[in-house]
Amino acid sequence: MKKFGIRGAVFDFVANPRQSSKAFRFFEDAIMVISDGRVESIAQTKECLDTFQEQYPILEYPGCFICPGFIDTHIHYAQTRIIGSPAPGLLEWLETYTFPEELRFSDPNHSAAVASQFFDELVSNGTTCAQVYPTVHENSTDLFFEEAHSRGLRMVAGKVLMDRHAPEGLLDGNDGGEAETERLIKKWHGKGRQSYSITLRFAATSTLKQMEVCRRLVQRYPDLLFHTHLAETLPENEWTMQLYPDCSDYLGVYEKFGVVSDHSVFAHCIHLSDSEKQRMADAGASIALCPTSNSFLGSGLVPLNQLDDYHIGLSLGTDVGGGTSFSMLKTMQEMYKIVSLGGDRNVDELDLFYLATLGGARTLKIEEHVGNLDIGKEADFVILDDGGQRLIRQRFEQSQSISEKLFALIILGDSLNIRETWSMGRCVYRRGVH
Ligand SMILES: [Zn+2]
After folding, report:
1. For the chain, which has fewer Cβ within 10 Å, the N-terminal or C-terminal residue?
2. What mean pLDDT value characterizes the chain?
């Protein structure tokens, strides 16, 4: 089916709704035409149905919402099988569950099996694009990209760089992972829909020598993203400052090694000073907010509004397996609750859907390809409905506006509300069909 129409209630964003009153685009009944995997047009059904029907098939989705595929800007595929493991905090969780599981990725069969499971989970939750941590093993990244490429999904990932404070089998060798990283960049960056991000676990698990490797890689490949964790918990902040005593704060460690720029993506960023926030904003760096992980591990309440006040680019990550769900709807729900607990102005449903779609594309510098349904963009989209759930159906029936319906989807929704997921104009998930 090279050219076809999708009919339903279509929405997306052309800007950040916190910065523009015209950011949200909504057609109550529209036909989106897909041609060769890309969006060709969107028009009100009453204006185009007769003409279009004569030319190509129209797939009808009455009562459904059609929106851009979700973009998860921070997730660990190697932690798929340890999601929901208990621990008192981040550092204990890494020791007890994460490192033992990540060691298993020296086995290519394990990497391939988990990669396949991971993509099944992503698409069944409406996620069409993600920025992903594999493990330190070259094969875990290679096989990840292999699977993403064969499924035609747009992914961003990079071998984890780590050379201290972890079990022997998870440490880079003498060259700090530089040669493996370069091989993977040459093989995968720009191949099909794949892109590479230079991926450091965090400053505390790298030696000064490996931090210099990061500096060199970032200088050599300025178009690539740099992806790491920052200020997730207070014990991690303290530990990092002990390891880098000549730096005045945590962000200063990354600045010292030249990896903070408009191509950096930092996950979490809960415990930052005002000065760090300002410097991140000045550098144009972005943040992946990971609310379900933060609540689960007791890391803290991410101050979305304060980060937003600095005009830092924000997006949402599930952070599985520290995060407790692959669902971006649930991630939006948790973000809403955390901001509510903060007590000042709340986020609304449009802010949250923006963070999960166009905000993610902007963070990952792929806005020219995905993130909304602009003409010519890759047709990555998701079809949402009430999932046959009585409560949500009732809520929809009583809703006075699109906003109320989207809000109900965020607060009550999960993977059951994903009817179909489409990637590059192909249906890659249909609820109830395996
Ligand atoms: Zn993480």
Report:
1. C
2. 96
Q: What are phi and psi of 262, to 5 degrees?
A: -75, 0
Mean pLDDT of 71-77: 98
Say yes or no: 98 and 59 in one domain. no
Residues 10 and 35 placed together within one structural domain of the fold: yes
pTM confidence score: 0.98
Assess contact for 299 and 293: CB atoms under 8 A. yes
Across 269-278, b (16+ Cβ under 10 Å) vs e yields: bbbbeeebbe
- For ligand 1, the distance from its centroid to the CA atom of residue 74, given in whole angstroms, is 6
State the distance from the centre of ligand 1 to the C-alpha of 322, rounded, in angstroms: 7
Same domain, 167 and 225: yes
Whether residue 6 is predicted with pLDDT greater than 80 in this model: the reply is yes
Domain match, 297 and 323 both: yes
Smallest Cα–Cα separation from 156: which of 429, 416, 367, 393? 367
Domain limits at 298? 70-347
CA 119 / ligand 1 centre spacing (Å): 17
Please give the distance, rounded to the nearest whole angstrom, from the Cα atom of residue 51 to the centre of ligand 1: 49
111 and 253: one domain? Answer: yes
- Say what the pLDDT of residue 1 is: 62
- Judge if 54 and 177 occupy the same domain: no
Helix (H) or strand (E) holding 283: helix 274-283
Residue 127: phi, psi to the nearest 5?
Answer: -90, 125
Q: What is the pLDDT of residue 342?
A: 84
Say if 360 falls within a structural domain: no
Q: pLDDT, tens digit, for every residue of 247-268?
A: 999 999 999 999 999 999 999 9
